[in-house]
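Q: Please design a sequence for this.
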């Protein structure tokens, strides 16, 4: 019984408190449609002055293809304040769960206004490094 108790405790914590499995995603913003946006600050990487990070978008209403969430791998330049979306993963479930489809991103730089969603996300990453 002593060997089963720790396993049972861990198992029940995932059932009763499912947000514990989302620990690396930190809430950053919400848009007017009620979609929520998160960043995985633990996975930010830097190379040659650029930052690389993941954004998780959790949609209140599904997008086309029954997409309820997506992750985008983003390259940012904090000095010039610009971003590139390197790759997308679209999920059938909330918070990056369920079946997924991958797409290659655009390799063009975008220059988001600081008060836009992209600008807020980039600024939050730049503040962490």
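A: Design:
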């Amino acid at each position: 019984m002593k060997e089963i108790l720790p396993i049972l405790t861990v198992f029940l914590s995932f059932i009763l408190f499912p947000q514990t499995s989302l620990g690396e995603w930190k809430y950053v913003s919400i848009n007017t449609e009620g979609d929520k946006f998160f960043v995985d600050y633990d996975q930010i990487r830097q190379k040659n002055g650029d930052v690389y990070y993941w954004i998780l978008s959790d949609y209140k209403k599904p997008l086309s293809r029954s997409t309820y969430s997506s992750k985008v791998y983003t390259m940012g330049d904090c000095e010039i304040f610009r971003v590139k979306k390197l790759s997308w993963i679209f999920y059938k479930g909330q918070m990056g769960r369920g079946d997924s489809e991958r797409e290659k991103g655009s390799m063009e730089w975008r220059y988001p206004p600081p008060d836009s969603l992209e600008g807020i996300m980039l600024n939050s990453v730049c503040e962490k490094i």
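Q: Thanks. Anything notable?
A: Residues 89 and 102 are 4 Å apart (CA to CA). Residues 4-22 have pLDDT under 50 and may be disordered.
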